[in-house]
Specification:
With 185 residues, this protein is α/β, with parallel strands linked by helices. It has one domain (6-22, 29-180). Helices cover 33% and strands 26% of the residues. The chain has an eight-stranded mixed sheet, with helices on both faces. It has a three-stranded antiparallel sheet with strand order 7-2-11. Helix 3 (54-62) links the parallel strand 4 (49-52) and strand 5. Helix 5 (107-119) crosses helix 6 and helix 6 packs across helix 7. It is globular, with a radius of gyration of 15 Å.
C-alpha cells in the first residue's frame, strides 16, 4: 500500500486482447448518449452506477453524485487530464491501482471491479488504458444498475445493466483473444 486505502492489484497474467476484427463492434454505442445539462440531469437521477472515463467520473463527483465504482487513467483524448484531486472523495472509500494495456481487458482490472462492487465501491486507477473497463462494470454491477462511459466529443453513454447487456458483454469478451503473460499463473 502506498497510502491509506490505496493498493495495487496483483496480476494473474490473463488478458483478453481485442482482435482488429472486433474493434468496429466495440466502437458502437450500447446505450443512449447524452451531453451537457441532459447528461448532468441523468447522472443526478441515477441509483447505483459505475463510471468509466476521467471526464465522466470527474463530472459525477462535481455533481455530488459519485459512482459506486469509477475507473480512470488520468488522460483524456479531448482535453488535459482531470486533476487527481477531483477523485479524492471516491478514492477515500478505497483506491486500487491496476495495469491494463491499450486494447486489452486484464483480469487485474476485472478483479478490481468485482472487488470494489462487493466491498462498497471506490476508485480504480489504471496504468495504461481504461476504455474496456466499462465491460467489467457491466459484468460486475447488479441488475438495474447503470454504466456510464465517456465518448470523446459526444458525451456519455448510459447502459442499463440487465440480462441483455450482461449477455452482450460475455459475448464480446468471448470474441477476444485470451492471452497469458510470462509472469502469470
Amino acid at each position: 500500500m502506498t497510502r491509506a486505502g490505496t493498493r495495487s492489484a496483483s496480476s494473474n497474467g490473463r488478458a483478453w486482447v481485442v482482435p482488429d476484427a472486433l474493434r468496429p463492434t466495440l466502437a458502437e454505442k450500447y446505450g443512449p448518449v447524452y451531453a451537457g445539462e441532459e447528461a448532468d440531469r441523468r447522472i443526478r437521477a441515477l441509483g447505483v452506477f459505475g463510471a468509466c472515463g476521467d471526464r465522466v467520473v470527474g463530472r459525477a463527483l462535481e455533481l455530488g453524485h459519485p459512482p459506486l465504482v469509477g475507473i480512470v487513467d488520468y488522460r483524456s483524448r479531448r482535453e488535459e487530464p482531470v486533476p487527481r484531486g477531483v477523485y479524492r472523495a471516491l478514492g477515500a472509500r478505497k483506491t486500487v491501482r491496476v495495469t491494463n494495456p491499450p486494447g486489452q481487458l486484464t483480469e487485474q482490472l476485472r478483479a478490481a471491479v468485482r472487488e470494489l462492487v462487493a466491498s462498497g465501491g471506490g476508485l480504480i486507477e489504471v496504468d495504461g488504458e481504461e476504455d474496456l473497463g466499462s465491460l467489467a462494470l457491466v459484468e460486475a454491477l447488479p441488475l438495474g444498475a447503470t454504466v456510464i462511459y465517456g465518448i470523446p466529443g459526444e458525451g456519455a453513454s448510459f447502459v442499463l445493466v440487465d440480462d441483455v447487456s450482461k449477455a452482450r458483454v460475455r459475448d464480446l469478451i468471448g470474441q477476444m483473444e485470451l492471452r497469458r503473460s510470462a509472469g502469470g499463473d
